[in-house]
Design goal:
The protein has 228 residues and is α/β, with parallel strands linked by helices. It contains 8 helices and 11 strands. The strands form 3 sheets. The protein has a 6-stranded parallel beta sheet, sandwiched between helices.
Amino acid sequence: MKKIVVLTGAGISAESGLQTFRDSDGLWEGYDVREVATPEAWQQNPQLVQDFYNMRRKDVLAAKPNAAHFALAELEKNYEVTIITQNIDDLHERAGSTNVMHLHGVITRSQSNVDSTLTYPMDGWEIKMGEVCELGSQLRAHVVWFGEDVPMIVPAARECQQADIFILVGSSLVVYPAAGLVNYVHYDVPKYIVDPSIPDISRIKNVIKIEERATTGVPELVKQLMTG
């Protein structure tokens, strides 16, 4: 069975109504990312950061997977599929994908403030100040902040090296280290890029461009891969 590796970015979640990363003006839902997405912000104003992610979690739980998420899940019928996502929502899982690697964490889990490997499932949308992990430390969103290590990047790179087919959906390839993953894909592997505004990928070989939104381009590509 051929192995497909899919890298997804904010573009696929945006069509479910989620702004999962900062806009071009450097803001995320109206906040400077330095105020809500760094360890320093957490130290300076933990209540603000906690409230921010509680609201993002509430948005995620209210959102629904879209046609692109469901189409990618369909690939598992004919292929071994690994989805590597830069997004912190759980829409891939809710659409039925069973092998999802979250590079930047997943907001529907909480984590210990002192040990990022201690994570917990959540029943609702809110983490309250005073809620602690088994070590007695405050719980926070299971999200990788700017300035923190990306522990999943090494296993993600390993997956990319093993791909027979690579698909990039809704990513501008500007957020590192995730943007560097495409460089681990073997040069002769077909690389499909689905995005209405495809970034400069002149350095990448064997690229097939699909200049469409995720909800139209991904189902078309999946149909082609399932029947081809």
